[in-house]
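Hi all, long-time lurker, first post. I run a small reading group and we've been trying to get comfortable going from sequence to structure in the token notation. Rather than ask abstract questions, I figured I'd post a concrete chain and ask someone more experienced to write out its structure so we can walk through it together at our next meeting. Sequence below, copied exactly:
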Amino acid sequence: MKTVLSKQFSFFLILSCIVLSVNGQMNLSAPLDHFSLPKSIKKHKVKSLVIFMEMNKRDISRQGSVTGKLEEVSFNAQGLMSYRLRSDNRGNPPFIAYGKGCYFEIKEFNEKKDLLHLYMEDFREVRQELMTYDTKSHLTNVKYLQGIDTAVSLGFTWLKGEMIKSELLYGNESNKDWVREYDNNGRIKKTVSGNRRTEFTYESSKDSLWTTQKTFRADTLYTLEKYTTWVKYDRVTFWEKKGANDALISHLKVGYDKYGNATSYYLYEPNNRYRGTVNMTIENFYDKRKLLVKRLYYSVKSPKAERELTKIERFVFDTVPLVYQFEKGGMNDDIDYKEIQRELN
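-- Answer (accepted) --
Happy to help. Here is the structure in token form:
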């Protein structure tokens, strides 16, 4: 490609912008997800990771409290995350319960580390994304499935490292009128669905990408979003959302260490009476393998106030696999995964 963007990041843009346009909001918890260097995982033959959480005394009530595992992770031979089980905290503690309130995802890659299949399942549904590539790892097709039904199928044509054509190959009843336009780097320029139109513009410098996203309803500006992404790790460092009258809706700023893990997190939502302002600093501790062993979360009430330790996460990397992993179709009794596989084949 002619820009500094890598092929992996351009692919990330295609997928993330589609998801963002569907869901209409940023995943505010994503910057706090841990990141492990694939080369370190591969070098030291790590096969699994379990993350535990230790609570602050303030969170322990007279009736007691619950603590346990936050996540279980498996890695493939390439050092890439191939399986993850976690809780979505649907009104429950944020710990794995191996049932309702938890979900798992499975990722399959080719030898070039291109993501081929993303499978996600909880007790309610199965969602899948299927990707194909050309010989130079350019994404040529992506399908989004709900159970066994294709919701959206998109096709991309590349020439000399540039995307020259994109098209909606299939859309179900709710998506058949979608319009998606991309630039020659595979970055989405415009989406249209009903009376909703979203336009994207980009500016890149060194290893950062600045994105401006304008959303219109019936040709009237509804929201304006600006966000900055650290290309190296696909991490959002800044995000701001304003309404049509320029009123601030959300403001997010995140700092990271050299390994791609958050060291500071500031979120301000003036109209969110439940969350308000979240301001924290994070200390990350690594072993000689450059793998996380511990994270300390501190709440910052004000610049002059002392930090308050609110949470500790402990990371246990192992060279043996997880004892138990959910198989596809294993969490939802209503899902016949064999039928899904027959439909895909």
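A couple of things your group might point at:
The chain has a mean pLDDT of 85.
The radius of gyration is 21 Å.
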